[in-house]
Amino acid sequence: MANHTREDWKARAAQITFRRQAFIDGKFVDALSGETFDSINPATGEVLAKVAACGAADIDRAVAAGRRAFEDGRWSRMAPGDRKAVLLRLAELIRANLEEMALLDSLDMGKLVTDAATIDAPGSAHFFQWYAEAIDKVYDEVAPTARGDLALVRRVPLGVVGAVVPWNFPLDMATWKSSAALAAGNSVVLKPAEQSPLSALRLAELAAEAGIPDGVFNVVPGYGATAGKALGLHMDVDCLAFTGSTEVGKMFMQYSGQSNLKQVWPETGGKSPNIIFADCGDLDAAADMAAFGIFFNQGEVCSANSRLYVERSIKDALVEKLIARAKAAQPGDPLDPASRMGAIVDEKQTQGILRFIEAGKASANLVAGGERVHVEGKGCFVAPTIFEDVRPDDPLARDEIFGPVLSVIAFDTEEEAIRMANDSIYGLAASVWTDNLSRALRVSEQLHVGTVSVNTVDALSAQTPFGGMKQSGFGRDLSLHSLEKYTALKTTWIKYKI
Ligand code: NAD
Q1: What's the CA gap between 169 and 200, in Å, rounded?
Q2: Is 302 a catalytic residue?
Q3: With left for phi above 0 and alpha for psi between -120 and 50, is residue 173 left, alpha or beta?
Q4: Which of 168, 196, 201 is the best mutation target for the ligand 1 pocket, counting ligand atoms within 8 Å of the beta carbon and taking the most?
Q5: Which residue is closest in CA terms to ligand 1's atom 12?
Q6: pLDDT (tens digit per residue) in 190-238
Q7: How many domains does the chain have?
Q8: Is 345 a pocket residue for ligand 1 (Cβ < 6 Å)?
Q9: Is there a single domain that holds both residue 262 and residue 319?
Q10: Which residues, in sequence order, are bridge partners of residue 473?
Q11: What is the domain range of residue 32?
């Protein structure tokens, strides 16, 4: 794979059979209505597949299958060591089908196939492996009680977990939710984003091949306003794990209140600040990572470092370096290993990004990019774009653009940088660049975000929780903490004779 050319990837892509149906109770099935939606390759405009558009009746089927499986214990009461063995097999199957999984995401939503093959797909295998290995090492508690009483405090699976995920990392978002929820013994009903359902459907098939029993892992493609809403309002879903926009995250909180008070874990939008101090030591490294932080995955990253605060004395030097990096990151065919950036997910998202750019041209100073690009005359591509002298109250600095658009703002003091960084409705992540350890800790402490990366960007691992504060939501994926949201604390009191 390391030596794959564009032609190799294209040839491999031509061999893929897309899974188009919902996966419910261990079988691929059409939507009961027979309706479908088009899965479109944004790099070419080609329709890849007509995928089952699930509605409320399909969600009912999937939830019922999940409930039956949960109640009869075929997975929920399996010994953790046995669940571990199945999930380890799934991790191996993802590795064995790595190229196909990478291609599915690349074709479906435009990301670079080389990124999908080196980051997303191996990441998915790693996260399944991590939770598999963890689940037979998590102990319950015995409470300190008087003699004659034994109080067991156990973490038990919740039942049926609904998961609704976005399109920017289709396989990994599906994995972050389902790996932990399944490891904990739940049944899962996963709704992928309508822009990118293909890898989740293949994942369901691999999960069945690995030995996940029928009904335990169901995938229901469909639109948000129908399938997503039906899952959110369902009376027999115990927990809804959501990743997506803040707007839709708020809807899921309402759905819960309108239905059965299911737990809702929203992981939502971001507008992450990247603060670069003059004492950062290595300005080239800071520029490299600042560019990566906004241009990786076309800027379609919830924690993208889209607000860059730079100390005034180094601003011009840094912006010059960033412009050079933006020029080097021009979009190209996602299947070409030479391309540095892929396609935007669809026409709607492309138009949204271009609207921000056009408005920004009147309010800030455009120094790189600023236009739509066509690759071989087609596709949804946007040039890596940088604005400087952005006003802190400009939409460029406030709104989540979710595209390759960087806003640069100069600061004079540490206090001013912290104040501007915190002046956002979002609080997902932040980066700080300085060689001064006390400053790094002092600034990190004061940033109201879920993750701070010091002298890097977007630091993330299976071992550490990922999630936000403020309107970035309060759900946490990854780490053992993620198991907390997929389990309930259950206390059992036992009297014994002394
Ligand atoms: P989105 O909110 O539009 O959609 C996310 C999911 O919700 C999709 O599956 C969609 O079908 C569903 N949905 C949409 N409308 C719905 C409705 N009315 N009822 C029920 N479900 C509905 O988000 P998106 O455009 O797919 O993804 C981009 C967003 O995701 C960005 O805001 C980004 O920051 C966020 N995101 C957050 C994280 C995180 O961990 N915090 C990670 C990745 C992406």
Answers
A1: 11
A2: yes
A3: alpha
A4: 168
A5: 224
A6: 999 999 999 999 999 999 999 999 999 999 999 999 999 999 999 999 9
A7: 2
A8: no
A9: no
A10: 267
A11: 6-268+473-490
